[in-house]
Amino acid sequence: MINSANLFLLLAIYHVIQETRLVTSLRLIMFDLPSPVMRGDSVELSCIYELENDRLYSVKWYKNNVEFYRFVPRDWPPGQFLPHKGIRVDLSRSGKNSVYLKDVDLNSTGIYRCEVSAEAPTFNTAEMEKEMKVFVLPSEGPKITGTKRQVKLGDSINPNCTSSKSKPASTLRWFINGNEVGIEHQSSHSTTLHEDGLESSHLGLKMIVKDEHFKNGLMKIKCTATISRIYIMSNEATIRAEGLSHQSSRLHLSENLNQAVQPSATTSCFLLTNSLTLISIILINLLLNQLKT
Amino acid sequence: MSIDDFYDKNLFVAYTGQNFTIPCDISGEHGDDTIILILWYRNDSVRPIYTVDARKTSLKEASHSSEVADRMVFNINYPISKLLIKTVEKEDEAEYKCRIDYRIGRTVYRTMRLTVLGKIKLTENSFGWKKKIKVGKKKQIFFLG
């Protein structure tokens, strides 16, 4: 039964719904891009919006406030690329909701913005922006130089650790027999910027050798290079104690006379480096998989 | 706000009750390109406050539309166009964004920050002229040249 009061109520509800629909306008729902990505990767930037009662006039893409791609349905062709350093757009895979960048390089790093505008008369516009970082991982582990084959208690050691070129620069850390070395023993921390835009880090270790630094007459000094949470690699050198009042240290000393320390130290560090390479590859794969999903 | 900010080219100061024009450089990256659309946005508004749609006509013949047309007039001149705000109010204090779409070249954005101060009162003293500006309850005094 519909009486006049109910009818009035229905009309009122209908009116409210219509009014609500009229005031809702274009809005951005999601803007997504993977970060960090590796140099050479192809990446998809997506921009999801709801037009509501508006019609689409344009979707424009900016990097650091400079437009590089636009999708305007009324233009021909609708998708247009505006040349920009470090940006290669795959036009066949880009469109009203996404832009596909091929072979990203260090110049692709920056703030990306997606801006959607409605047609006349409103020209309502919504935008979102996000940063994309492009990384280059080191091609090999950090290198330790300036180590002594053997030391006496009270000697000072001053080895240096240099990371392989990367972007961003690796963070270096020193460990002695597995314990991290405090900042008071770190020296000459610096970063070198190379012509190709990559960076390498340097970190020195400066300390007076004490009894506590040795385990069975051996001092294992390790340098690790890390880049945020996605990469870690290390290298290790072994220093032997000379004249420690320790049975085992004398034994090592005699061995030491017969063979060069460096090869044995290198072998052990390669083993370690290889296992860490495996760990870092697994970590990177995990991260990339997460980014893809 | 420090006095140095007044020298920033994108910062403007208007006094309430004045008419004020905000400039917008409409020249794009290519000199021979055609402007197809000019939109003015205020703060982070979704809807532009002023629109010039020249996609089907020339820029001269293009229709202007604005929800605040009684208070704002946009005069198009090359390369500097001007948005005139009539009888500035405190509420006009905002960031104004002028967007220019071109047929070929990249879209250009110009951002201008407008600060609105109270009415000017001029009084003379032994040092010369001084300007008294009412900003809310505070009084700021600027000495003229």
Automatic annotation (TrEMBL), chain A:
Organism, scientific name: Tetranychus urticae
Keywords: Signal
Pfam families: V-set
PANTHER family xrefs: BEAT PROTEIN, BEATEN PATH IIIA, ISOFORM D-RELATED
Taxonomic lineage: Eukaryota, Metazoa, Ecdysozoa, Arthropoda, Chelicerata
Residues of the signal peptide: 1-19
SUPFAM superfamilies hit by this protein: Immunoglobulin (SSF48726)
Cited PROSITE patterns: IG_LIKE (PS50835)
Keyword Hydrolase: no
Domain Ig-like: 24-124, 142-240
Descriptive protein name: Ig-like domain-containing protein
Record carries keyword Protease: no
UniProtKB/TrEMBL annotation, chain B:
Superkingdom of the organism of origin: Eukaryota
Residue intervals of the Ig-like domain: 17-115
InterPro entries with a match to the protein in the record: Ig-like_dom, Ig-like_dom_sf, Ig-like_fold, Ig_sub, Ig_V-set
A Pfam family of this chain: V-set
Stated name of the protein: Ig-like domain-containing protein
UniProt source species: Tetranychus urticae (Two-spotted spider mite)
